[in-house]
Amino acid sequence: MPADLVFKTVYCLETLQQVTVVKYPSGDFENYSFNAIQKRFFPVKCQDCIATQMDSDLTPRQAAWCPHNQQNILFAYNHVLKQVLQYHFMHETNSFCEIRCLDCKLDEDDNENRNIIMACSPSSKKPFLIRMNSEGRVQKMQWDINKETYVIIAASEINALTTRPAVVEKEVQKPLGFQNLFTSLSLEDSPLMESDLIPLHRELHEALPNAMIILAKHKDTGEYGSYVFHRFSHEFLEVVLPGIDVFKPAICPFNPLPRCIGLVMSTKTQEGINLQHTYGVPGIQKYIYRRVEKAFELMEDAPVIQKVSQLDKLLKDAIESRINEWDRRFIEKIRPFMKIQDGEEKEERCSESSGDESEIRELPSESVMKSKGDKKKSKTPEVQYLPCEFFISNQPSAPAEPKPAEQSKAPDTEKASEEEDSFEIVSAAELPKE
């Protein structure tokens, strides 16, 4: 087994950069990316960029005959992937090919320390010997006619099917007194933060012509999504736009995003905001330009707005901060494209629980069209100012107190006036026939 390190440079589709895979003699490997500005390597976490699997990385466990595929198989431990897999030796290429037979299982009771497989090349008619070396790895040997003995053959690459290492969960011991502190927390309960996003691509959409749409990937779950930066609140909104494939970065390779994603103008402070990202590091950084200091200042990490209810609250706070007409129309346009449409469901539940209330409830999209003074008036129903004679009720209402000028009228006159002004709806059967 070679004792030197093996280096391989690949293009990582997850971090969108050149990654150097360093493979150790033990089969372990690590990924690094080179920063040209700082002139140093930084570790990169990526599941798809692995070291090249060689047959010298295999430790044979058991040789068996597969009756389903009609071929010899070798159960071997792969030191790169950290798991036991099935392999078949191909005589034509003198290399191993990974196979999968669910019916063939490894016999754990077989405690043989050395398994030998005899083979013969159909082209050269020379016998092969596959065995374990002193370190327990696969060693291929071929018969040499001149030396009349078996000589070692160089290791070759495996035709692999499995391309990801096995995930080993490590148990972390918690401090005493805090065992049950984080038991109820989960990834779904935690809000989506801007530092959780890995920006991949930039898009435009006809529904939001003046918005910059960023396709990004979640660093933990691997979920793809589209996000729009709101220039008034300085926060990102997660949207679902028709015609935009959020899985495009994973399917079609493209040129990576530049370090500077975009430069926008804040509609709240009228200052420039620079959206940046660092290759190999999750998160979108926001830098706002301060005119007094004449320098960019790093803004705090903020949660991503995903729900309509959050957008409505944002609009309410923005109206109190004197939001301009452009931002108000922008929120109205983006409202139906929010990822979680919980605003309408909430309004339906409120309307059902209100029953026969006479108060008129307005949708948030309609209420923003009115000024703050109109909202205060809408709290009191306008119907209560109408005269009571225009409403029909099955229950008798209390008579109104007469005005001082009307107290001099006779009781018969008042009764006649009430009969003339009052009416009720009757059916056709109750009408008098001529």
Low-confidence stretches: 168-187, 345-350, 353-373, 375-400, 402-411, 413-423
* Major beta-sheet overview: 4 strands, antiparallel
> What is the first-to-last residue Cα distance?
117 Å
Compressed to H and E, one letter per element, the order equals: EEEEEEEEEEEEEEEEHEEEEHHHHHH
How many domains make up the coordinates?
4
Shape: elongated
The main sheet orders its strands as: 1-2-3-4
Q: What do the pLDDT scores average to?
A: 71
* Number of DSSP E strands: 20
How large, in whole angstroms, is the Cα Rg? Answer: 38 Å
* Alpha-beta content class: alpha+beta
Strand content: 25-35%
Helix content: 10-25%
Question: Count the helices. How many?
Answer: 7
InterPro entries: Sepa-1
Protein name: Protein CBG08473
Structure overview:
The protein has 434 residues and is an alpha+beta fold. It folds into 4 domains: 38 residues; 94 residues, no CATH class; 113 residues, no CATH class; 70 residues, no CATH class. It contains 7 helices and 20 strands. It has a 4-stranded antiparallel sheet with strand order 1-2-3-4, with no helix packed on it. Strand 2 and strand 3 form a beta hairpin. The radius of gyration is 38 Å and the shape is elongated.
